[in-house]
Amino acid sequence: MLWAGRMRLGTFGILLMLVHTSAACEFGPFPYSITGIVCRMTKPAALLLNQETAQVIQAAFRNAKFPNITGERSMRLLGRVAYGLSNIQVNDLSIERSEVELKENDAIHIAIQNVTAFFKGTLTYGYAGAWFLQLSHSVDFEIESSIDLQINIKLMCQKDQVAADASDCYLTFHKLTLHLQGEKEPGWLKQLFTDFISFTLKLVLKSEVCNEINFLARVLASFVHDLAADFVQDEDISIDISLASVPLIKANYLESHHKGLVLYKNYSDVFSDSVFSPSLLTESRMLYFWLSEHILNSLALAAFLDKRLVLTIRGEKLQALFEAEDTEAQRKAVQMIFQGTSYNDSVAKVWSLAHPQISLQPEGTVVKSLVAVEVSIFPPGEQPLMVLYMEKEITVTIEAAYVEKKLILHPLDSRIEFKVFKCTADSSGNDPSIRNFLKTMISVVGIPEVISRIEPALTSLMNSKGLHLFEIRNPEIITRKGYIIVQLDFSFPNHLLLDFLEKRLQS
Asked: Does residue 318 sit in helix, strand or coil?
């Protein structure tokens, strides 16, 4: 899949992660049934990312390793002339225009017009048998070229992930002019090398530039997959983003499908009843992510097994919970529970007794969890005392949003049902005032407090994966029965591609 915080590459990298053929992968007869994550990129996004193509092509030209060219030719009166072109490298490069087209059920077609490239190097030559001894003449040269470049990126599935084949690559030369240093050499020499070497030089340039483009395409595909895999992993919890089916390549969008199985230590996830269908997504936004309800449930289970669903509250935070409102009932409950002990000498522990059940509905994400709360006091000079223990089933509906690079979780409504209630101040359990107070406090203050801890934790986790580096515009998180859709527009962070290419060139 294409996770939001790791879209760090240009046209090659982003598009390669999204789509590919199934040449080396086998899928079952009903691949959509095991689809947990879907990514759809529409044509406007592809056009935006195409703006980065120029940097990839420039890197391909500059990083191509051009071999030395040698040969000889018989000339009337002069006999044999041996020559060599060495130290060929790109001196200057500019690209006028780049276009991308999605060829339905075929490939990503990229057309680059008017690539103006200047190559420099050294020309050595000699007469008669000088080639077998030592070439005694040398002159620096510059080659001015004007090239159109056509690339059809065939995409394949290998080892359940994307692999790219950009070998369908063509260079069309509109201009190839040889300039010798100072233009002081004999006129026949320039004519000879311009006419004779140009053909060989075209073949060398095509081979080396296309080879480098193909190499970059493969590296970018692998790099983006690794970034996506890292984005959906945190310590021992990860999501399997292996491909679940043959992706769709339409004229207006690209779509890839991934298994989305949660992996945690010895826990093995199973999923075979996905409700995904391509008709569930539209084409009005640049980027879409579709996630099955099963993934969220499995993540909740993994978090529970990893003992992450534990919260400790003390001091000012604890005071804020119990003194959110100043009423007679509140003052009575606080006195009965804490028995005059200060909040600084008290602690509340909250944890899940079972893994939360998550249900996605049109009104929001419904979370149902069996939670335990334990409040203990530590009176100075006395033994610690547990003054309150309760188990309750909490059901809360949450609406999610992503605003100003932060995840916002808003509780819409909640239901609380006590299963176990023990309070030292009411050992008989006949006084409903404490229970009623706690029920109101949990609903009004407790649940928002827990959510306020989850929001920054998840935001920090996503930012640690690089999500904050993207300019995400008007994101929407939409819940439906059994699945969630994240849809957005975005701007590509130019410096990220440059950073990757610099590292690639230095390696």
From this structure: helix
